[in-house]
Structures are given as structure tokens and as C-alpha cells.
Description:
This protein is mostly helical.
Amino acid sequence: MIALGGAIGTGLFLASGSAISQAGPGGALVAYGLVAIVVYLLMTSLGEMATYAPTTGTFNKYSEKFVDPAFGFAMGWNYWFNWAITIASELLAAGFLMQFWFPETPVVMWSGIFFFLIMGINIFSVRLYGESEYWMSLIKVAFIVIFLVVGILAIFGISKNGHTVGFSNWQIGHAPFNGGIFTILGVFLVAGYSFQGAEIVGVAAGEAKNPKKAIPKAIKSTFWRLTLFYVLALGVVGFLVPYTASWLANPNSNVAMSPFTMVFDNAGFSYAASLVNVVLVTAVLSAANSCVYTSSRTLWYLAKSKQAPKFFAQTNHKGTPVWGILITALMGAAFFLASFISNGIVFNWLINLISLCGYISWLSIAITHLRFRRAYIKQGRQLSDLTYRSKFFPYGPVIAIVAILIMMFGMQFEALWRHTATWVNFLATYSGVILFMAAFLIYKWVKKTKFVRLEACDLDFFRKEA
């Protein structure tokens, strides 16, 4: 439920409309489907390492032990930054959704209210976080199931309006693949943003009661649920909403109109639209809740590993890293206050920045798994001793690395093809990559770290730390 809570949020309920608008219903489905495959390959890689060596805080420990300490340092700070700024996008989304009922109120006001609510939940105890996240995740999962039923009925005309939509929205304009392959490449950032959070099971592994049993189960179920919800839900939206609808592509004015809300509204459930918006607000807050949990644990681990100021490792009597939560809160607050500039511009920029940071984390999982398995064999250990083993090694992580690199730079390929590329947009979009490389090179230069040889990889670090 924690993985589902982190992954099902703004990316599905708001940003998916942008993907359909750009690539058409078919193009968006292809992009989301390919990302789903990559996520599955990554989840099996992470599952193998997290089951063997469960850690609390962040899986950058694997990058540190199996690749290079500098790589682990840069990955840890990248992951913290990723989730800290994701809080801002989720809170902005919640504010946008509240404008469905209160169009005259400022987005920042609602974002601020929800900000203090989420901080309070996380500061009290991990048990309160777990309970609240479980129920909020359950609400959004139940909603998507109802949405799929209502949406499929509406496609075949079994609704108040009684109009059979069929494939009509797949035949208008340049549908179903608007712009061809380069447009699909361009929406990979949106698709990647939507799926981010599935890897949170690797962060929560150390706090699981029985990680060797719970993690493999979570890995398997999370992928299928995400694929089912995302692919089917996106398909229903693509059938019922024409990709040419102006409000899909114009978050400046109508981002409060989530495609999910509009599907219910168009199906004739005018009162249900308000109920849908309640669920969407709950879902977005659930995702923000996961963001605070993940980023604060990552910062706590960085401090514990002497890669961040020592006081961030301090916890209260309930084991909650209060300082980690507070500094993460300040980062999130700084980014959502930037909405004073322009809601839509900041929201889209945050999606791109978060997507690139997330892709870096995914890339590190694939690279680290390659190193872990090779070191495991090099040191004479038996694969049969692994509680959970990825079925696709070595092809899984290799395919994931190639696919992620294509996805990371797909938007730039499209911009170059259409002659719309500018240095300003490039720096804004890839600022996360630049920060990651800077952190890696500076730490490597200061600490004089070296690439870890396979025979020297510390495969038993988790037992020593326990």
C-alpha cells in the first residue's frame, strides 16, 4: 500500500491529461505501457537486493557498497531532492483541485493548509503515517475500480447521456498517434513522473516486519496493480475525452478539471463530479504523505552515514526523524510558494524536474543490480541462497538502462526534431541531472573515492549494521 500510495497521485489524475493531449490516446498508452515494463524490470532488480539486504532510509546504500561511495552519495541526495520537490507538485495539485469548488481562492492557500496537515501526520509517528496511508491508498484504489466500471459503461453508451462513444475519439485529427514516435518520446517524462514511487518499497524495507516475505509480495502485486490502474484508466480517458480538448493541454486555466472528473461529468453524473474531486484530493494528499515519509527517511540515512549534517539523524522517542521531516518541509514549501510566479508554468517545470531525478534513481537501481549480482557470483556465493531472485538478469537491468536513457532524453530529441530546443528549456529540464553529476564529481574529488572492485564489494554490510 505504501508503494501504491506513492505512485498513484498527480501523475495519473492530472498529468495524464497532458500526455493524451500531446501524443493522442494511442501514443499515451504506448508511452505508459513501455514505462510500466521498465518499472517491472526495475522492481525485480530492487526486490532481489532489498530482500537480501533490507535497509531503512534509502537504497543508495547499495550504490555506495556495490558501485562507488561517490555514486551512493549523489544518488542519496538526488533521491531526497526528488521527493522533497515532489511534495510541492502534489500540494500544488491539491490546490488546483480545490479550485473546482472555490475558483476564486488562491492555490497557495489550500496548499498551505494541506502542507501543515501532512507534516502533522508524519511528525507524530510512523504508525500514524502507515495507518493514514493505508486508508487513503484504499480510497484511491477503490475509486479507480469504480471509475473503470463507469468509464467502460459510458464508452458503450450505458450512461445518462446514452451516447455510444466507441472509437470516435481515436479517429479525430491525427489520433490515435498524434505526432508519431517523436511525440511519444516527448511524453516519456510525464509517463515516468506518473510511475515514480513504486520503488518506495526499497526505502521501507528495513521497517517491514518480515522483509523476506513482504518485499517479494509487494514487488509482484505493485507492478500488476500499477499497470492495471494506469493502462486501463488511461485507456478509458482516451476513449471518452478527445485529445484535442483545449483544457487537457492548458493547465494555466483548467488544470482543476482533472480528466477523471470530466469523464464522470460527461457521463451525466454531475453530482458525482464533486465526489470524484474529493477522492482526487485524498489521492494527491496520500501521494504527498508518501513523499514526506520517503524524503525524511532518506535524509535520516544520509546523516547516519555521515553524508549529511549529523543532527538530521536525530529521532524523537517514537523513532521519527523530526529534523528530516522539517527540512524536507521547508524545501517543499519553497517550491510550492514559487507558484506565485505562474501556477501552470511551475507545475509543468516541477513535473519535468521530478521525472529526471526519478529516472536517475531508476538508472542507479539497474546499474547497482548488475554490480551486486556479478559481485555475488564473483565471491563464490550460491544464487540458490537468495530468497528472491530476478528472473530477467542480466537482460532486465541492461534493457532498463537503455530504455531509461532514451526516456530521459526523449523530450530533447523531440525538441531538436521540431526546432524548438533552447538552452533555457534544456537547463530547466535537465537541472536535476546537472546537480547529480556535480554532487558525484565533487564528492569523488573531495573524498578521493574509488570504483569498488567486485571481489571487494561488502555483501554483508547489513548484518554488521544490525
